[in-house]
Amino acid sequence: MEQLILDLLSQNIVFLVAATLIVIIIFRGIKIVPQSQKYVVERFGRLHAVLGPGINFIVPFLDNVAHKISILERQLPNATQDAITKDNVLVQIDTSVFYRILEPEKTVYRIRDVDGAIATTVAGIVRAEIGKMDLDEVQSNRAQLISRIQESVEDAVDDWGIEVTRAEILDVNLDQATRDAMLQQLNAERARRAQVTEAEGQKRSVELAADAELYAAEQSAKARRIEAEAEAYATEVVAKAIKENGIEAAQYQVALKQVESLTALGQGEGKQTIVVPAQALEAFGDAFKLLKGVR
Length: 295
Description:
By secondary structure, the chain is α+β, with helices and mostly antiparallel strands. Helix content is 61%, strand content 21%. Helix 3 crosses helix 5, helix 6 crosses helix 7 and helix 7 packs across helix 8 (278-294).
């Protein structure tokens, strides 16, 4: 009886050991990988497989999950590095880089400190790119600079199984001496523009005055030309009349001028009484006769 009991106990112990072993094998052979991670599996110390999200099976005791890598996007701590622009201006660049791991096997076996390596790479690329640009270009073409930095960083970290998703330049700082020099330059530029504007205004004023004088001279010359043409026409008419009517036409013109002069003299203030010599009266008489004869 005792032997039977011992046999049953032995069988139960074996069963329990076997069940425990099966549970351990199942536990070690089934790996459930979260959506945000990938597992790197080694077999006898060498890379065997990379497990993606979901249920995965491995060989217990032969395969071992050596690394659990997060594939979420990461942000490096903000970094500040000094750089010298193409026109020899010292600037401080604040940068921030975002990346994520695409191939964990490369990241694990090719680089030890991935964050430090990316930060060092970014610092070197930023200094190199800033050195190709003048300060004004750095300030005005920041988007282009960011794009170039991101492309260069992507090429540099490609062997590490990393994708650089974003690279940002948070700020471009200058030392106080450079700021003061830039402020002086800005004030000088404003003063120059004001002087140029004032000079252009004065130039325009002179041009307008010259145009006005030229216009007045042209109008005066035109008036004199019209007056000269009128006088020439009148002279031509008189000459033609003299040619056709002889001396009578000339006497008529002289008599007409005498009458006009006498009329103008009589219209003046305080000059209503006019003493005319007898010879003048005879001339006027002849003129009146001529006028009467002409009419």
